[in-house]
Design goal:
single chain; mainly beta; 99 residues; six-stranded antiparallel sheet
Length: 99
């Protein structure tokens, strides 16, 4: 996401380590601009949504996957700022940030 041109989205593939490894398509799309607090400084960031593109059969089995959200600082040196979502399939929601 740090390397995407501003305002554009893309689809990438990741490896899901199931009993038989498989490729899963993930849509990376900007969802808006937010302000993230870094220590005592407000920093403008782009919020991205990461959505798995499940096939028809898998989407029938899994009804509610939470959105994975990531905040990226733009500019000449983009940087990761914040993460919110499960770290594994059907896992709890984690929040990771630079406090």
């Amino acid at each position: 996401m740090k390397n995407l041109p501003a305002g554009s989205s893309t689809t990438v593939q990741i490896i899901a380590f199931t009993p038989k490894p498989r490729l899963v398509k993930m849509l990376l799309a900007p969802a808006g601009d937010d302000t993230v607090m870094m220590s005592e400084t407000a920093v403008p960031a782009t919020r991205f949504l990461v959505k798995p593109q499940l096939g028809l059969f898998a989407s029938l089995l899994v009804t509610d996957l939470p959105d994975v959200k990531m905040w990226i600082l733009g500019g000449e040196a983009p940087a990761f700022l914040k993460f919110e979502g499960p770290l594994y399939f059907m896992g709890p929601i984690w929040r990771i940030d630079w406090s």
